[in-house]
Amino acid sequence: MTPVKVAIIGFGTIGSGVAKLLLEHGDRIARRAGRPVELVRIVDKDLVRPRNVSVPRQLLTDDIDSVIKDPSISIAVELIGGLEPARSIVLSLLEHGKDVVTANKALLAEHGPELFEAARRLGRSIAFEASVAGGIPIIAAIGESLTANEILSIHAILNGTSNYILTQMEEQGQEYAAALAEAQRLGYAEANPAMDVSGADAAQKLAILAQLAFGAEVNWKEIPRVGIDTVQADDMRYATELGYHIKLLAVAERVDGELELHVSPTLVKKGTPLGEVRGAYNAIRIVGDAVGRVFFHGLGAGQMPTASAVVADVIDTAVGRAAITFRTLRLWSNDGPKVRLRNPDESRSRFYLRFNVQDRPGVLAEIAGILGRNQISIASVIQHETEEEAEGIVPLVIMTHAAAEGPMRRAMEQIDQLPVVRPGSVWMRVRD
Amino acid sequence: MTPVKVAIIGFGTIGSGVAKLLLEHGDRIARRAGRPVELVRIVDKDLVRPRNVSVPRQLLTDDIDSVIKDPSISIAVELIGGLEPARSIVLSLLEHGKDVVTANKALLAEHGPELFEAARRLGRSIAFEASVAGGIPIIAAIGESLTANEILSIHAILNGTSNYILTQMEEQGQEYAAALAEAQRLGYAEANPAMDVSGADAAQKLAILAQLAFGAEVNWKEIPRVGIDTVQADDMRYATELGYHIKLLAVAERVDGELELHVSPTLVKKGTPLGEVRGAYNAIRIVGDAVGRVFFHGLGAGQMPTASAVVADVIDTAVGRAAITFRTLRLWSNDGPKVRLRNPDESRSRFYLRFNVQDRPGVLAEIAGILGRNQISIASVIQHETEEEAEGIVPLVIMTHAAAEGPMRRAMEQIDQLPVVRPGSVWMRVRD
User: Fold this and answer.
1) CB–CB of B145 and A140 under 8 A?
2) Residue from the list B25, B144, B314 with its beta carbon closest to the beta carbon of A316
3) Integer Cα distance of B163 and B275 in angstroms
4) What is the pTM of this model?
5) Which domain CATH number covers B397?
6) DSSP character for B2?
7) CATH value at residue B37
8) What is the pLDDT of residues B45-77, one digit of tens each?
9) Above 0.95 for ipTM, yes or no?
């Protein structure tokens, strides 16, 4: 059969991995696509930097038009990352009749509606398995395998860097800054880790999953999020004592017909599949009304896991499956049922609270009183006798029963105004 | 758009679940299939038995020809189970131009080559996501999402009944017979549990996965298997003491260019995702050369999880994706590369051994001597002082370093002939 011709735009880590698979495992891929899949061009501004794949020189170019204007190329893999020029290039590729495969979560979370609408109008497809959770086939699972279900909830660890840092903090007893530095030294965190540790990366991925699973039209910036840079070694220790791990949890859950969305460090029960996810792994727990609970675990980033997802999409596109999926999913389109976002104040959860208080009689009564007046009931309290009290200040840890976030925040504000409470109060969601 | 017409053959538990989804969630399914999916006939010999779904009377018939000979029906869902008449009916359905969706693992494990060849010849498709691991989309994962990979290994818990019983034995300290009776009382095990507890059901599913992932042409009966009916409460206790859970593990692994296949109760390290699978769940750990390790966990049986997989296949077939997948997978065909099965004697693992020995000097030396002469080296030994020795007989537990199964079996035979060793020696694989 005639080969299908593919171009890679963006020759960084993932691009090199994709080139490696296409060039070194052509037989395997041809067998699975039913025809040869030929890598004919790689576009990047930097043609000199060494990569861990050897590529025939004539494939390399810095001229994007050599792909856009070549009608023989039918699939373009966008691996530039970021918003521009990625957005303009993808639009141009679609307009010139190419199907697009992308790993660019930021692009989809920001410009998904525009790009998907353009692809639909032009009769092209966009495949994006690699944009969320790398090697875990979560896009296919939700978009194809679980289509008989109404999805009820998604609880996910979507940022491997954060999970690596949290695991280090827990296992080594390190503070956040030390664990981050270690992660940077080992290449698990970037020099500028802001997107990862702030929860922004996880929020972008959650926005894509929420669109796919719930038809939610949400800009990722509107998803309430707290990063792991707020987590302290003290909280790790208390979480352990209480029987929990702290995870950066991304949640999308149907409640009373509305959709609750948030990303935040959360105490997750030990011994549960999500709780036990360690190191740079991702994991996703989905509940569907027919299938029940399904759990996926794997590498969410890295060269070859991500390239594995990209090349699966290339094969899907080559065989025609991606076109069907794209047509039936109708992502970011106006015809599916819409779901309303839930007011974060109404989000209910158990909460972990930590206060730094003066070690004197009546403090617990004052705090418990404020919680009670805000309808928050206490499940357990930890206040240890400490030998090394810093100026008579001791930590007070409270686990609440389920309460709404609005009243909990109001209670925290009131508690923080008590003269006996020092700054630095902490709250986190709890997931049993 | 014109509706696609579907018939269900076999109106048991799964059939009722599929009818429920198609009849009660028609809107959802039509949206995802891009057209209405209309259930037009349900065939069963027993039209009287009550089911937990209300079905228009005119859909029900005991006449299979009313499906086979109705050219307006394009998708037939085979849920009869077993070999005959399921095999003849599927062949007849294919010959009459219907695409087939099936949950019948026994049928595929036994007659896969014949049925797939017939479907290919007739230009039809067979979709079978529900045949392995129920609600876990493992067929799609291997056949579509991981196609860029060479699969290196599959380690799986594929029988929920066995896992439920093993979990009960561990958590309640029950013997096998008591845990089985409890599982039967609660509906987790059938009156005749032979297929589940003997490992046969898991071997059938493993045969399907091995064909899909490795192109292995293996009859499930040739897969070496040991059932959970050999596991004793004593072994559970020792496993716990050593830091392991006992799981009925199905393994397909590439070793030196050959494929190792077996199903057996195995000591699986605590804290690992596979080790922590409890109750009636299934789980699959796959390693691909690009993606690394991916782990799936969910309900492997039950009405609605299985129906979820069946209806996903119906939608896949209706939109045309199943036809493409079926064509490109070329299962049980003669064109993929073939893999040779590894001689079980060469299979290497650490082993757990338990002997009942006379409590007298020199016994350990004799046993250790035999192991040593068979090149099996000992990693650790447990021999407790017991107060309630039965006639001077005590258990001796040995964990070995990695050894081949052939020499291990030979050593066991020699040890069993020692006068100081009583009958009932036990060996199990260990997975760290």
Assistant:
1) yes
2) B144
3) 11
4) 0.95
5) 3.30.70.260
6) P
7) 3.40.50.720
8) 998 888 888 899 999 999 999 999 999 999 999
9) no
